[in-house]
Amino acid sequence: MTQTEEQQKKSIYWKDLMNRWKYLFKLFKLLLSTAPKEVLIIMFVTICMGMIPLLSVFALQQLVNAITQLGGHASPGFPMQLILWVLLFIFALILQFVGNIFGGMIRDHMQERMKADIQRLIIKKTHQLSLAQFENPELYDQLQRANRGLESRLFSTMAFIFQSISDFITIVSLLIFLFFIHWSIPLILFIGSTIFTLVRIRLFTEQYILDRKQTTEMRKLGYFERLMSTRESAREIRLFGLGDHLRGKWKALNIKLMDERIHLARRESRLEWVSSSGNTLTFSIVLTGVVYIATLGLLSVGQYAAFINAVLQFQEALGNLFWSIALINNDLRYIKDFFDYLELPEEQSEGALLLKEPLKQGIACENMSFVYPGTKEQVFKNINLHVYPGERIALVGQNGSGKTTLIKLLMGLYKPTDGRILVEGSDLEKINLSTWRKRCTAIFQDFHKYHMTVKDNIAIGQIEKIGDAEQITRAAIAAGADEMIQELSNGYETLLGKEFGGQELSQGQWQKVAIARAYIRDADLLILDEPTSALDPQAEVEIYKQFRDIAKDKTTIFISHRLGICKLVDRIIVLHDGGIVEQGSHEQLIQENGHYAHMYRLQAQWYA
Fold first, then answer.
1. How distant is the alpha carbon of residue 230 from its chain centre?
2. What pLDDT score does 386 carry?
3. CB environment 520-545: b (16+ within 10 A), e (fewer)
4. Torsions phi, psi of 142, nearest 5?
5. How many CB atoms lie within 10 A of CB 60?
6. pLDDT per residue over 12-28, tens digit each?
7. CB neighbourhood size of 73 (10 A)
8. How far apart are CA 227 and CA 245, in angstroms?
9. Contact of 204 with 330, CB cutoff 8 Å
């Protein structure tokens, strides 16, 4: 490595170090905003705890000197001076004991408050990220590192910060005390303890690098564990005999990760031996010097006892201080991960507010193109489409043609790569997205199953109606779910899902509940993505019968591979190869004899 490269490497190292310690101020700011009273109390306790060693050393010196002054002159009772120093020494010990307990209680209380608030910050931040960011695997790695920093590093860093403040006060006070006895002793202690403590600092960097390297593989290990232990995957694992195969993958990955950690642990043991041996050597040198000074008659017995006690406490405090700083320096890498996650760019939250009146101009795509983050293949290229108010549209196309992606773009869940989407003539990127999404409702093909009551599952569609039993029932009737719900053990109050001991539904019954969730929302745009895929023919017919009434006064977009529904819509949009290849009514497209007509006839032949 050339001298220039070495200088650049050092420059990068120090820049990274300084940048990392900036996060310490952010952590203090977070502590003060979360638990200001607790921070002030623990700072007061910390300062007191830092002064206690000096108090105990001073009391010990005076106590021993008082005893030696008595000599062989016996007198009845204890001299008042001796009692005073005994009480002061005992008081210092009690203060240290009480301070440790009281400080620990305050830290525990502050930790619980912080844990809830910081977890809330992570969850809130996750909800403020755009859906496109969830397409990037690095986001999940960042989220895991942020959570790991919260669970195992944030609170330990907080404890070490206060401990290092206390140790620093102890070191300064004892340094002054030792300096007046002999200047060389603290100097030797400081140099020796510093050298042999710094030996281990590099290890923390290696630990962080290993943790960061293993983040994705640890997520994969957790995935295998969930796969082998959850109800959803249990059937296929047993049916296809995947147990041994998955256990083998889990075991191989676990062994690889474990070997890497063991290798680092062995290196840590070697460095620990070097560090401990060096500190012992330093103490031995200092102890020899103290004995020599005592033999010269330069120390009283009290000073000698206090000197030994001060040296031991000085070395312990200095070692703890460097150890705490090294731990803080290491943990700040994890704290940085936490704050970096909180500083990720958020989804657009500002912009023009849409008026609550019904749509008059509708929704339009102008030369819209889209590529999923992290990929190169275009889903859409220069699409132009106008959805008019109150229009009923069916999106048709092969799997992967972009039907679901298109509706996500229209709802503002994704941003176009090029071109723009207009809502009421305004660019969607300049509109407050929350006000637009309140005007939309949807049931997706991969709808979520909430392990809550039936009532809550439906009301989630518009949470303000959670107490409106009439609206919830009306939505369930429209979705064909009311009869099924009435047969459940507690009707609309039935807890669904096995996770918390509730009642499990079939996939079709879950889908009816999800349809009701979409129907309860007062929305201008209704999107139905394969809403009948899990329903039996009779239930599907009932949904279709309700469709015209539900879609009344709403702009409706319907996605289905069952092309019979297309007879109920005003316009059919056929997607193929990243564009719109056909559009028109059912009759028009059948006459054109293109993609739609071909797909329709393929399905129809099975019913002929």
1. 22
2. 93
3. bbebbbbbbbbbbebbeeebbebbbe
4. -65, -40
5. 21
6. 556 766 777 778 788 88
7. 6
8. 12
9. yes
Query: Is the CB of residue 327 less than 8 Å from the CB of residue 204?
Result: yes
> Alpha-carbon distance 280 to 249, whole Å?
46
Is residue 185 scored above 80 in pLDDT?
no
- Tell me, rounded to whole angstroms, the distance of Cα 52 from its chain centroid: 40
Share above pLDDT 70 across residues of the chain, in percent, rounded to a whole number:
89
Q: Please name the residue that has the structure tokens 């004995």.
A: 291
**Average pLDDT in the 430-447 region?**
84
pTM over 0.85: no
Return the residue matching tokens 């990243």.
Answer: 578
Q: What's the pLDDT score for residue 115?
A: 74
| Tokens describing residue 514 | 């999800």
Residues in CB range of 445: below 8 A, 6 or more apart: 404, 529, 530, 533, 559
**Span 140-151, average pLDDT:** 70
DSSP string, 120-160: HHHHHHHHHS-GGGGG-HHHHHHHHHHHHIIIIIIHHHHHH
Distance, in Å, from the CA atom of 527 to the CA atom of 551, rounded to the nearest integer, reads 10
Cα torsion angle, 392, 397, 399, 400, sign: negative
**What are the Cα distances from residue 556, in Å, to 16, 420, 531?**
53, 21, 13
C-alpha span between 574 and 397 (Å, rounded): 6
* Amino acid identity for residue 313 in this structure: Q
Q: Which residues make Cβ contacts (< 8 Å) with residue 183, sequence separation at least 6?
A: none
Both tokens assigned to 563: 């092309």
